[in-house]
Amino acid sequence: MEIKLFTQPSCFYCKNIKDKLTENNIDFIEVDITQEENRQEWNLITRMSGLGMTPTVHFKDQIWSPQRDFTDPNSLVQRLKYFIENPLPTPTEDEKFMVLLNGIKNLSLSIQKLHQSVVNIQTKVNTLTTVETKGTPKILNEETTE
Predict the structure, then answer these.
(1) pTM
(2) Host domain of residue 127
(3) What pLDDT shows up at residue 32?
(4) For the chain, does the N or the C end have fewer beta carbons within 10 angstroms?
(5) Are residues 81 and 14 in the same domain?
(6) 65 shares its domain with 30
(7) Are 21 and 7 in contact (CB under 8 A)?
């Protein structure tokens, strides 16, 4: 089972990830994205994932990025161990379509919730900072006694 870890020499987080994987006896292939011979592969990974940050992990048909799929070296190790012990079969074309469709639905729901939160915040801010005075809104501050 091949695990590729896309790194760059100046990335301290990459070093921590490599150390943690080695410490946990998880074999991986390091791909230094600053080397010319790796640029085409890195470009493909960034195009597929939509993110160009290191360390990025390519494992089976998955691309995992920091802060989206793992928060620290330990969470990456836990995730890898789980999927190494409980491998998923390669998805069919129909399953890939369903994953994409559900991802879009989840994104849409998240955007709707975010929009509602912004509307609620705007309403609260407007209620707390303005009062009608003869048809003109007046901003209240600490010096205002009305």
Answers:
(1) 0.69
(2) 93-139
(3) 97
(4) C
(5) yes
(6) yes
(7) no
